[in-house]
Amino acid sequence: MNYRSVADLNDTIMRNFHRLPNDVDLVVGIPRSGLLPANLLGLIANIPVTDIDRFIEGKTYGFGATKQWAGLRSDPALRRRVLVIDDSIDTGASMREARQKIRDQVGGDTPILFAAIYGTRDCHKDVDLVLETVPQPRIFQWNLLHHKILNQSCVDIDGVLCVDPTVEQNDDGSAYEQFLSNAIPLLRVTQKVGYLVTSRLEKYRRHTEDWLSANRVEYGELIMLDLPSAEERRRLGVHASFKANFYKASDATLFIESEPLQAADIARRSAKPVFCIETQHMLHPDKLSAAYFGQSVRTLTQKVQRVNQKGGYKAVVRKAAERLLGGSS
Question: Which of 104, 131, 175, 224 is the most exposed place for a label (fewest CB within 10 A)?
Fold first, then answer.
């Protein structure tokens, strides 16, 4: 599973910034995902940004309002290059649609460079430039909860689809039932989830199903823990093992978990990738795998920067000591 975060996206842009022509004076993002790299590039290069429709209208985003971009309607001799960009390219359908729309509405007088941040190969007939090759299967931080991969995924409920219960709410009684019925939605998924796998007890199935229905969450199966009480669940400590065992035996290719320690445990026990919502990190069971190594290298610079920040080194040492001693100081 090849995963790229927003931080990875920014790093890719910075590493490849020198490959972009220096005469670009407008960045056009292909909605919606292409607007993210378009805005990053626009901010880095200090040039205007717009989307396809506003580009055709001769408008850009600027200083919190829409303003005219003189380049499109001005003397052709004064026009410089336009960069049309998307976050990724695979089949090329979105890029071909954008090309056709520009060709029909704008014409061929304005020099345009078509690019994608990520591609399944380093050259693609529908773009002039691919910044980084990332083969399938791949997912991005900004589209994970709207990706068709959810159809073949296990997804936790508390901390993902809704907020976690407070200590007071988690009484395994009337307060907990009130929480289940009125839990505050957290992250919205726009695809059908293959399996909802939760440590909620089986006896709360009706409350859970009612909430899912009320919040229009589509899913295949709801997998719940069949134990008599929350006290017994805590005594056995089976949160992660329960989820991992189901995930391992299922045909699911990804587990989305809210809590970091459980996410790591599920990945280790299942020998499959797990995405942690809290850290926005993809956990790979095999630390010798190419995917794990690549992610470690990509995040190394960020870790070094945090350590070098004021108080950063002390914070790292303190955190390590807390882990060793099992408490906080």
Answer: 104
